[in-house]
Description:
Blueprint: E1 19-21, E2 27-31, E3 37-41, E4 47-51, E5 59-62, E6 68-73, E7 81-86, E8 92-96, E9 102-107, E10 113-118, E11 122-127, E12 133-138, E13 146-150, E14 155-159, E15 166-168, E16 175-178
Antiparallel strand pairs: 1-2, 2-3, 3-4, 5-6, 6-7, 7-8, 9-10, 10-11, 11-12, 13-14, 14-15, 15-16
Amino acid sequence: RGRPNPGGDYHTAFFNDDFDFSPDGRQFVVGLPGGGVSLHRLPEGTELARNPAGGEFHRVRFSPDGRWIAASIAANAESRAVWVFAAPSLKLERKFTPGSEPNAIAWSADGDTLAVALADNTVELHAVSSGRLLNRFHAPVRSPSELWFVAQSRLLALRGGPSTLFFVSPVHGREELVL
């Protein structure tokens, strides 16, 4: 029998800042307190894979197709990184070093583009399959902390400290809508 899920009927080891569920809801990934990630099966919580690579990830996100897991570190300028692991093996596939500390990460609908909102008020778009930086632009919000691809990935929604929601073209980096 595997370990129970976080929040289960008995206490489990602490996990770090974030977790996410696979698109089909059958798995979840957690950042580990000593660094790395682990992947678990639901509902029993059995650990399927573990990778100790990286530091303490503050964001983890499954791609929409469930093939990839992105994890970001923003402890300080020297350790900033975004890691991409293959699911379910947790084999490291890519590592990006963004221009500043990553605050948020989001996947495009096709699961090939990873958007990274940075502490220096910029957004980077990375092609996971090739490893290329596709675009980098100034975010219309200070220190964006939330980020989503919307409208079939034609727009990025960003939010920072204020409650204003900005919709930006990921291709051109310009505001399209503000709510």
